[in-house]
Structure prediction request, 90 residues.
Amino acid sequence: MKRTIITVVGKDTVGIIAKVCTYLADNKINILDISQTIVQGFFNMMMVVDTTTMEKAFGDMADELAVLGEEIGVVIKCQKEEIFDKMHRI
Prediction:
C-alpha cells in the first residue's frame, strides 16, 4: 500500500472537504483516515490516503492539489508516509 499524508489548512468556507474528496475520488485515491477541526474560523484537516491505484505521478497529484487549494483559499500539502515518518522522528 502506498500511503500519503494530506494536510489542508486555511479559513473555513463551504465545500472544502467536498472539493478535496471529489479530487481524490476522481483520481482513484482511497481515504483511509480523516480528521478535521475548525478553531475560531480556521479549518484544519489531515488525511491518510492510499494512492496505490492512482494513475498519476505523485508530483502531479501534489501539484494539482496545491492548485486546488489556491482556488478554494486553503493550503494543501502532500507527503509520502515514509518521508512524513522520517521528518517527525525525535
Observations:
- The longest strand covers residues 30-39.
